[in-house]
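PaaB family phenylacetate degradation enoyl-CoA hydratase
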Amino acid sequence: MNFILSDVQNGVMTLTLNRPERLNSFNDEMHRQLAEVLTQAERDESIRCLLITGAGRGFCAGQDLNDRNVDPSGDAPDLGASVENFYNPLVKRLAKLPKPVIAAVNGVAAGAGATLALGCDIVIAARSVNFVMSFSKLGLVPDCGGTWYLPRLAGHARAMGLALMGDKLSAEQALQWGMIWQVVDDEALNDTARQLATHFASQPTFGLGLVKKALYASETNTLDAQLDLERDYQRMAGRSEDYREGVSAFLAKRPAVFKGK
């Protein structure tokens, strides 16, 4: 089965998690298919924005527990292997992708599905969405970047409460806390997300990629190191074709036509 659907139009790759009967929860084959599609997004220069959403009534319910059924009389499963082989590479690849990544969150986003969404560059959620850090309900630790992203998005106190209690967090509350970019009516989600993705696909992609790298680096850099990085990235951006086009268009008072280079 195609557990991951991909479609490329006008510079936008739409990646759809496609196990709607299981609320798009992950199994190993779904991870492998996702990895293949991400390779295309990384290598294809005509793809200038990645849009991730879910099929059916949910975004992603995290890990499919049917794949992690525990036999009381058998050996305990090595959940760390799944994190190391699948979730960790996924988080790193999305963060390092030198193109904007948008999550259009529809329906439930639980466990690794919630942390996957929150790890995207821009999160647009339908009004009915709930984010659920359900790991603690199973005696587990938030993965898929959850313990890294949560405190940075929500602050220490809120991150601790969300992770320890595993309660639902509404899209509206997530927006108020500054964890996501936008909340829209359910019926407007797809159009809103696609319009933004199409916008990004027409922008100076090379520069946007440097913005991502700089912001991630700021999480661990000193001020001096970050200032040096800004200098270096600005030097690189200033040598790009897109910068030349942007200045030329500004001076000629015409719309810029960026090529993402």
